[in-house]
Structure formats: C-alpha cells, structure tokens
Design brief:
Oligomer: single chain
Largest sheet: 6 strands, mixed
Helix content: 10-25%
Region (Disordered): 184-205
Strand content: 25-35%
Shape: globular
Radius of gyration: 16 Å
Number of helices: 4
Number of domains: 2
Order of helices and strands: HEEEEHEEEHEHEE
Domain Endonuclease/exonuclease/phosphatase: 8-139
Structural class: alpha/beta
InterPro entries: Endo/exonu/phosph_ase_sf, Endo/exonuclease/phosphatase, Swc5/CFDP1/2
Protein name: Endonuclease/exonuclease/phosphatase domain-containing protein
Distance between the termini: 21 Å
Low-confidence stretches: 182-194
Pfam families: Exo_endo_phos
Mean pLDDT: 86
Length: 205
C-alpha cells in the first residue's frame, strides 16, 4: 500500500533517477482522482469505490504533468494517461494484473478490459504498457519471436502465455526480454516500429 504521506519520498526518488513517469501498483486507494504534490509533480490514481484493495496510480514529474492531455481511470487494475510531446503523442497504460493463481474468470476479465483499452488508443500514438503484469514469459524466444527477446528467464507460466498473446495481438514487444540489464539496457526500453512495448511484463521475474 502506498500511503499519501510517502508520496513525497517517491517524488524525491523519481528526481534521483531522472524519471518523468512512474507506474505504481497495489496502492489500495479508494476511488479515482488526482493530486498535486511538491515540485509540481502529480499523482493520478484509480481504485475501487469502497474496498482498499488492488489500485493503480501514475506519478508524473512537473514536466510530464504539463504534457498530460487526458487521463482515464478504468478500474482498480488499469489506468490510462495520454501525453503530448514535441514530436509525438504517448499513451501510457499502468496495469496491475491478477496473479497466476487467480481464477480464469478474473484473468479473462482483466485481459478483455485491457484489450478494449488497447483498441481505443489512437493508432499514431507511441504506446507503453507498464506496471505489474504478474507474468513469467520464460527464456525461449522461439515461442514467439515477434514479441520476445533473448533475455527472459525461467519457464513461461499461464499468465505469461496470456501476456504474450496480448502483445502479439497488439503489435507490442515485451521490453524486459529485449535487453541484458547487466549491461545497462534497461528492461523496459523496448521499441517496435509498428506498435509499442510492455515493461514489467515478466521477462526478469
């Protein structure tokens, strides 16, 4: 759970790492809204109406806050923000997927909703799905070379299969499998000419 009193500390950490956009999962705040923090930063959040469970948020630096043109709280597991840059528009979707042990109905509901969100993103936008996808996609790039790189670990699990299918459907790559973090690649800095990338998809989990 992310306490409101702790957000100032997160802002400082964002500054230290030079981050403009940070996705937060399992924040457990009720309802949806935005708050202005110190240094001109902003936090956008989306949760359930009553229960303090799940919950997602996107924290923005001052510059990212100025570039924000629209944001949409979908539910307690998905929040969307759109930004206008100098040369392109960017849509960021912060996600908190059900665990691998969750029932099939819960997983299907999540991915059906996520697919509906993906379908509504303007085709010319740069796209980034970030957060905790609770998935392992494994080290076998040959399973789906259009989506996976060679830097995954372990064996793919059920959530990993769902994630790979989602990425393939939407012309995305899973960023955490594309680069070797030990060489400074940065697990989420994937790129794809026709689509976007997924960061936090489980390549290194």
């Amino acid at each position: 759970m992310v306490q409101l009193s702790k957000t100032e500390q997160v802002v400082n950490e964002m500054d230290n790492y030079g981050l403009d956009i940070l996705a937060l999962s399992e924040v457990r705040w009720t309802g949806a809204g935005s708050q202005t923090l110190k240094k001109g930063s902003t936090i956008l959040h989306s949760g359930t109406e009553k229960k303090k469970e799940a919950g997602v948020a996107i924290m923005l630096s001052k510059s990212a806050s100025r570039a924000l043109t629209k944001w949409t709280p979908i539910n307690e597991r998905i929040i969307v923000a759109r930004f206008t840059g100098r040369q392109a528009k960017l849509t960021v979707v912060a996600c908190y997927a059900p665990t691998n042990e969750a029932d099939d109905t819960t997983k299907d509901n999540f991915y059906n909703t996520l697919q509906a969100v993906a379908k509504d993103i303007p085709s010319h936008d740069l796209v980034c799905f970030v957060g905790d996808l609770n998935a392992k996609v494994g080290s076998d790039k040959s399973y789906c070379p259009e989506v996976l790189g060679s830097q995954g670990l372990g064996e793919i699990n059920e959530n990993g299969i769902l994630l790979v299918d989602f990425a393939l459907t939407n012309d995305l790559i899973i960023g955490g499998t594309q680069y070797d973090d030990s060489h400074g690649g940065g697990g989420g800095k994937g790129a794809h000419g026709g689509g976007g990338y997924i960061s936090g998809g489980g390549g290194k989990h």
